[in-house]
Amino acid sequence: MAKKDSDNPDVFGAALLDFYNEKYTEDITVISSLTEDDEIPVPYLFRDFEEMPEIEQEALKLAEGKILDVGACAGSHSLYLQKQGKDVTALDVSAGAIEVCQLRGVEKTVHADVFDLTEASYDTLLLLMNGTGIFQTLKNTPNALKQLGSMLSKNGQILVDSSDIAFMYEEEDGSYWRDVSRAYYGEVTFKIQYKKQTSQAFDWLYLDFKSLKKEAEKTGFTCEKILDGPHYEYLARLIKTN
């Protein structure tokens, strides 16, 4: 999700609040530099554990200690963890999202950009729904990982999912095209739109596992793949080693 910005409409927050207040009439439109416009069904953001993909379910099972749910959105992951008796804090840049988390019963919330935090005592950072997106670009990934690592306790972990989107560049003859204006094929620019409000453009990163592992190991983490999903997505666990 885009960084917090006073001039940037809270598109996600508006959609989540409408749904919570039973004013749901349309979904969120995603405008992409890579593909045709797509939609995010707002009801899906309120899903319970049984409706979550296996990758998310496995990540929630592995989350332990003091947990920060980064990009908590409507709070579905935080609520599940809280019901399991775990110490979880929901964080989001969207004020509306945090309001919805609170209305749904999430006890600990923070309205902030994760990279603005200075607290260094979390045992688990949970980055789901393409969590590598917040790294923005491949070039920025080492700095992002270093910042996240500074927030972890000794031997703390990051549970993150992403997708290898190389398949989106495949031609009918089996060859691949590349956007020469991008340093890495997983770098995408998005805008999101809801009820005639459109966000500012923001960079988002889909990172293949091999590249994630390489960058993680350069910045003081071990990195293992926990699970592959059915369509090029995966869950990884990064453990702080220093």
Automatic annotation (TrEMBL):
For whether the record's keyword set contains Methyltransferase, the answer is yes
Originating species: Leeuwenhoekiella parthenopeia
What does the entry give for GO biological process? Answer: methylation
Output the superkingdom of the source species: Bacteria
Do you know which Pfam families this protein is assigned to?
Methyltransf_11
CDD domains annotated for this entry? Answer: AdoMet_MTases
Under Gene Ontology molecular function, one entry of this record is:
methyltransferase activity
Keywords attached to this Swiss-Prot or TrEMBL record, sorted alphabetically, are: Methyltransferase, Transferase
- InterPro entries, per this entry? Methyltransf_11, SAM-dependent_MTases_sf
This chain belongs to the protein called: Class I SAM-dependent methyltransferase
Segments forming domain Methyltransferase type: 68-159
